[in-house]
Design a protein that fits this description.
The protein is 29% helix and 16% strand. It has a 12-stranded mixed β-sheet with strand order 7-8-9-6-5-4-3-2-1-10-11-12. The N terminus is likely disordered. By secondary structure, the chain is an alpha/beta fold. The two termini are 28 Å apart. It has one domain: TIM Barrel.
Length: 338
């Protein structure tokens, strides 16, 4: 295993520069593709990483070469005193980008404080522009509040502002053009994320999947697209711009139909302090236990970073969705953090 290279690498040579930290498993939505209507059994508060522990882990990863951190959940906005955590993380020397993924509920109220604390940008999940369909998916009547959150994000964060949309066949697949028109009108990037087998109910079926290619073809028939010349080669999204020069972008995250595992530069920490080297990992590395071990001697950061390097070195080659040998992840999406 390579050591002290100044980069966090796995055995396949992938350099890890992107860390996603879940700060809670709780959520105020009950999206049909994620969890049952009654919700899940939430972690006790004592099991969650404290702000101090999150800062310690984030600092270790940045020292190892991570440049971007995204806060996720559950729904991160339900975590009390979130701006205080953002302020801690924004001060980490060497961190180049601090962002957050949210469902947007309550964002309008807290956006000013998050911006002042140092948050660079947000991604907002939005699965329908039709009130009744939104309520059917999220099991909450909150479309107007989410749209207010999007407006607020556009005012308070430099961006780019990204809208994440999961299409499920027979539910919201009739809104493809509506979302592309949102991108054109508002100048935002709408990213279509393929429906993945990460629901807590394990009800995912392949025939519910709408592939990125199908969405691309639908959009380009009315609004021709061309490749984004500024495409990030390590980003999960394949980005396109409108050929007529109209503002906004369309992104496609296609982990099922077109996996991008060979270029993956991300790892994740769950809200209870477990390191997952793949969204579909069946095993985890307990980092919280190192932070809370009363018998720690010497420099705890050194031990922590050695454990991180070893875990990342063994990062999975890929997830095998839709292939023989695929094994469901050991937790659902809301328990992992997106």
């Amino acid at each position: 295993m390579e050591r002290n290279t100044g980069q966090l690498k796995d055995a396949l040579g992938r350099v890890i520069e992107n860390l996603r930290i879940s700060i809670t498993d709780r959520c105020n939505f009950r999206c049909v593709y994620c969890m049952p209507a009654e919700g899940l059994q939430w972690l006790p508060k004592a099991d969650l990483l404290t702000f101090e522990e999150i800062e310690s882990l984030a600092s270790s990863f940045v020292r190892l070469g991570v440049k971007k951190i995204r806060l996720t959940g559950g729904e991160p906005l339900v975590r009390a005193d979130l701006p205080k955590l953002v302020e801690r993380l924004a001060r980490i020397d060497g961190l180049e980008d601090l962002s957050l993924t949210t469902n947007g509920l309550g964002l309008a109220k807290i956006a000013p404080a998050l911006s002042e604390a140092g948050l660079d940008r947000v991604n907002i999940s939005l699965d329908s522009l039709v009130r009744a369909v939104f309520e059917k998916i999220a099991r909450r009547d909150a479309l107007d509040e989410v749209l207010c959150g999007i407006e607020s994000a556009a005012c308070y964060f430099e961006g780019p502002l990204k809208i994440n949309t999961v299409l499920v066949r027979g539910i919201n697949d009739g809104e493809i053009l509506s979302f592309s028109e949102l991108a054109r009108r508002e100048g935002v990037e709408v990213r279509f994320i393929e429906f993945m087998p990460l629901d807590a109910q394990k009800d995912w079926k392949a025939d519910q999947l709408i592939t990125g290619k199908e969405i691309h073809d639908t959009i380009s028939q009315k609004y021709p697209l061309k490749k984004d010349p500024h495409q990030d080669p390590h980003a999960p999204s394949q980005d396109w711009v409108f050929a007529d020069g109209q503002g906004g972008k369309i992104g496609f995250i296609d982990p099922v139909s077109a996996p991008f595992c060979e270029s993956c530069n991300r790892v994740r920490i769950t809200s209870d302090g477990k390191l997952r080297t793949c969204l579909f990992s069946v095993g985890e590395t307990n980092l919280k236990s190192i932070l809370r071990d009363p018998s720690n001697e010497g420099d705890p950061n050194q031990k922590l970073e050695e454990v991180i390097r070893k875990a990342v070195w063994n990062k999975e080659p890929g997830h095998l969705i839709s292939q023989k040998g695929f094994i469901h992840a050991s937790r659902s999406m809301s328990q992992i953090g997106g």
